[in-house]
Amino acid sequence: MQGKLQIQLAFHLTGTINGGGLQRIPEGLVPALFSRISDLAELRYDLPMVLNTIGSPERSLLSLSHMVDEVVCRLADTPECDRIARHGYRIESEIRRSLATAGESTLSDSWKSAAESLSGGDGDLILDSAWVLESEFFAAGSVTDLDRDTPALVMRHIWRALNEQRTASFRNRIDRLLYKLHNILDAETVGSAIGRSPDRLRASVGSAFDSAFNFDALSNILTAAKPETTISDRRRERIKWLIDVLERQQFYAGRDEKGDSYCFIFERPSDALKAHNERYPAAVELAKALAVAELEAAGEYREGLHDPIFEFFGSNGLTSSDREQLPSYLICTDAGSLDPAETSKLLEILAVGLPFKVLVRTDDVLEPSELAEGHLSLGLRARQLVDTAIGLTDVFVFQAAASSIFRCRSKLISGLSFAGPALFSVFSGDTRTNGDTPAYLTAEAATESRVFPSLFYDPDGGSDRASRLSIENNPQPDVDWPAYSIDYEDESIRAHKIETAFTPVDLMVMDQRFSSHFALVPHEDWIDEMIPVPEVLAADMSPGDDKVPYVDLIDDDGILHRAIVDTRAIDEARRCLRIWQSLRESGRSDNPHNKPSSDLEVEVSIESDRASDASLSKSSNGSSAAEERPAGESKGVSAGDGSPYIESARCTSCNECTHINAKMFAYDDNKQAYIADPDAGTFRQLVEAAEGCQVSIIHPGVPRNPKEPGIEDLIVRAAAFN
Amino acid sequence: MMEMTHTISSNDCLMQLFEERREIEDYQKGVPRWCTGCGDNAILTAVQRLCRDEGLLPEKTVFVSGIGCSSRLPHYMNTYGFHGIHGRALPVAEGVKMARPDLSVFVNTGDGDCCSIGAAHWIHAVRYNMDLTMMLHDNQIYGLTKMQASPTSPIGTKSNTTPRGSYLEALNPLTVTLGISNVSFVAQVVDWIPEVLYQVIAAAYRHKGFSFVRIIQRCPEWMPKLMDPWLHDPDRVLLLHHENGVEISSSLARTYTRMEEHDPRNMNRAREIASEYDPIPVGILYRNPDIACYEDLRHDPRLRTNSMVQSGIEAEFDKFTVWPEQHGSTR
Predict the structure, then answer these.
(1) N or C: which terminus of chain A carries fewer CB neighbours within 10 A?
(2) Are residues A560 and A613 in the same domain?
(3) Are A565 and A532 members of one domain?
(4) Do A654 and B232 make contact, defined as CB atoms within 8 angstroms?
């Protein structure tokens, strides 16, 4: 026994296998928590996603399984619902299976081909179900599974959907302005000598009434009746310039989708920045033209007042409201291709608050450090960018694994619609160094293990850090690790249950590059000193404790194995935990450092008020209860002997009490209620009247008949009004 | 019998004096159909008290209303009344006052009736400054038609017409009225302080000119909890008092400790107060008795005798009469 422990400890401390049956982990072993999800195609989950092109941007990203569920719910009352639902689930599963091999396709194509490949035994019925479901989807577009390109695909799709909306409203605005500006010029022409010439008048009336009018006379009358209306040359020039700028702008596509409009989607920050700088004069010109055109259209442009302002428009940079009128730039890049020069450009873009939306895709969160063999730096690059962006305080930050993109779509949309810069850090899961594990599983595992937690930082979210930072989308965000249980049976078919958690160590064990940090222990060498990794991470263990951490693994046959872990991997997992804990800390609203100082002062003063209130109520010997009563109740006309009374002066004559008992409650000379005869009704009626009184002026006193049914309850209810 | 009315004996005079002392019941008619708990009841009681205390003759008093819960008030007054058409209470009242300046004319209208469909009449009634007492029963909802948002509904009010919540900020009837030329009396009260409600309506009645009283009232049926925060917290009511305005009794001052001395002649301060909604200002915001009334400007010195009225009507009829002799045609 001692020998086994020594050998395992030696591995744990040094990472070196020195006999004793220990061996490197063979291929095919996966963390035990994967036992239930060995075949993703068999499961129903968010993927595949549909990049919908119909409807509002909120519906631009859909999940196939959600769409099927929605339609099934909608058809719940139809007789064929069961059959349609059953077929729907089969088709959905078939699409999931075929996408894993075939890749992206359109919704209608993949839906039809999946239905056709399944039809056979059920004959036409499955095709019928497929048709019913498809006609209820109200969606079209491509269906996509998860791979490296998915995050950029989704981002570009949502950006386009949002930009279409912006383009439409921009076009409406431009059309309105152009119409008004043309009108100003037209009005001048109509009012001029040319506009009132007989020929012009004849042309404007049309040929049908040509003989009915004497256009010469009409022209004479019109010319004599009203002096010529002219606008100043400066104004005419200005309006022509406005029309020219508005008509040839390239920031938004024209109504006929023709003409050269700028492209706003880039792959490298430097390209985007270059394009932005090149277009800057045009952007200033357009923003200026929009501002001047609005004034002109409203007839409010005063040359004396506005000329000096607009002469130097934009020389101090565009304001954020000016920038909001123009499209935002989308950069879809990946962390691997971001060299130091590009990274510094990217940070510059974020820091100066340009309206750029930057997607940085990470394919590898376990990237080993280049510094020295064996040093780990889990999720370093993404973390660096995100931390810097959050530190800038006015950047919208989105961090999530690609597997949760669908769940976080509303955040994605708000980030893309955010007025300032936004950083989207997405882990694709397509690492390619972890065997056959699907990208979806790797991405989920990175979130579960807290190596790549979901986090959102919305500068508009509130006044303090806690309300801006959200980590709610993580699994079990209130604890260190998400906890799960695994059921298994031993050789003697006895049931066991393991309570475990998914930690960064589980993520590392999936990756071949980290195999040297693990050693498989044969079943016969399992000893009591072996303890699960989550327990080791929870306790602060020192090398002298003689404990060896292990992770549970399973093979293809579902047989449980244990692999012990070296200290380097444990240290790295512990670091991840600390980072997660500090993230949780800063996202919590009860953290005093997250609040603006004025809030703190208020809280302190409330606390001290409470303290002084408490001491007052003690010193006044319980009389504070009377002071807490609602308005004016202390000044009622009470006989002081527990008899009921009404503060008549405050009565609003609403008939509430007189309806309950007109003999007990009556109106005085001023038509305000008083208790005419307390014995004319029951205590219950008094209590009900007190409860019904809108202005709370009826005080039921003590019951006159202690034998009335339910009297205890009524006394309790009356207490609130006495 | 005819002679009796022309020559009044001293005995009759005594009889009349005796009769003129009326009680509240003398002004009541029917049982109000408003919901129990409705703020309209408080307003009805206040005007009935006013009629009694001012000794108004029922035959010389007219209550004019438009359409809505509030506008049922004339039905419950044992005086003359005119239940008009939606939004048109004010033109009817102005017509009554123009023809019979000797009558006391009251107008009861709701927030929908006045501020929505009747908004144009409201503006011009303020400008005409005729001697009318207008009570705007503002429960911030259309109650009679079962809950639709009105112009004074707070933003976000969910109603049958605004199921996702109303989109617009509520209109402030006080600031609107104070912005109209010739405005002469603007006050605001809440239905749950009957003492001030009565005093302000009485002051409005005594004011010579158009007096505008906005009464914030509760609707227990459609907006049940809307006013509760103000109802149960006296510190959220700001009582305006002044020797030329409302005097606050000592018992009321014990409950409502938040007070401000406000001279109703001070228009600038009145506009500031009018813009506040929390605490709710209660009292007379503005009063200027020096603004001429339209009926005085257009006063016709001729006596409105029966013969004069008849000759006027005949003259109108004559415009449409066909005189066979004149035109040489026969019947």
Answers:
(1) N
(2) no
(3) yes
(4) no
B65 in Cβ contact with B74 (< 8 Å):
yes
pLDDT tens readout for residues B218-230: 999 999 889 988 9
Burial of A66 (0-12, 13-18, 19+ CB in 10 A): middle
**Distance (Å) from the alpha carbon of B221 to chain A's nearest alpha carbon:** 12
> How many structural domains compose chain A?
4
Residues A512 and A394 reside in one and the same domain = yes
- Give the model's pLDDT for residue A601: 45
pLDDT in the model for residue A450: 86
A448 is a domain residue: yes
Task: Look at residue A500 and tell me if it is in a domain.
Answer: yes
Give the pairing of strands B80-83 and B61-65. parallel
Helix, strand, or coil (residue B49): helix
**Residue found by looking up tokens 């209820």 in the block:** A136
Percentage of chain B modeled with pLDDT above 90: 71
For A25-51, write each residue's pLDDT tens digit.
887 788 888 777 767 777 888 888 888
**Cα–Cα dist B155/B169, whole Å:** 5
Of the three residues A125, A145, A165, the one that is the final residue of a domain is: A145
CB contact (8 A) between residue A695 and residue B220: no
Closest residue of chain A to B237, computed from CA coordinates: A631
Residues A9 and A63 in one domain: no
Q: Is residue A266 part of a domain?
A: no
Interface test with B, best of A657, A671, A697 (most B CBs within 10 A): A671
A48: preceding bond cis by omega (within 30 degrees): yes
Q: Is the domain of A521 the same as that of A456? A: yes
* Phi and psi, residue B222, nearest 5°: -110, -25
CATH at residue A667: 3.30.70.20
How many Cβ atoms sit within 10 Å of the Cβ of residue B325? 7
Q: In terms of domains, do A480 and A513 share one?
A: yes
**Residues A694, B254: C-beta atoms closer than 8 Å:** no
Tell me how far apart the alpha carbons of residues A226 and A610 are, in angstroms, rounded to a whole number. 78
Q: What is the mean pLDDT of residues A584-613?
A: 52
| Chain A contact set for B41 (CB, 8 A) | 652-655
Contact between chains at A653 and B194 (C-beta distance less than 8 A): yes
Long-range CB contact pairs, B166-173, < 8 A, 24+: B170/B140, B171/B115, B172/B274, B172/B275, B172/B277, B173/B111, B173/B114, B173/B115, B173/B136, B173/B138, B173/B212, B173/B214
* CB within 8 Å: B38 and A654: yes
Interface test with B, best of A633, A669, A694 (most B CBs within 10 A): A694
Q: Which pLDDT does position A27 carry in this prediction?
A: 79
Distance between B293 CA and the closest CA of chain A, angstroms:
33
* pLDDT at residue A115 is higher than 70: yes
Residue of chain B nearest A633, judged by CA positions: B255
ipTM of this complex? 0.81
**A334-338, A539-543, A553-557: range with lowest mean pLDDT:** A539-543
Domain that holds residue A606: 597-624
pLDDT value of residue A543: 59
pLDDT confidence of residue A354: 82
**Rounded average pLDDT over A415-435:** 85
Residue A713 lies in a domain: yes
Q: Are residues A531 and A521 in the same domain?
A: yes
Determine contact, residues B274/B176, Cβ cutoff 8 Å: no
Same domain, A506 and A397: yes
A692 and B37 within 8 Å at the Cβ level: the answer is yes
- How far off is chain B from A291, nearest CA to CA, in Å? 26
B234 and A651 within 8 Å at the Cβ level: the answer is no
Mean pLDDT of A112-124: 76
- Mean pLDDT, residues B207-213 taken together: 96
Domains of chain B by range and CATH? 12-292 (3.40.50.970)
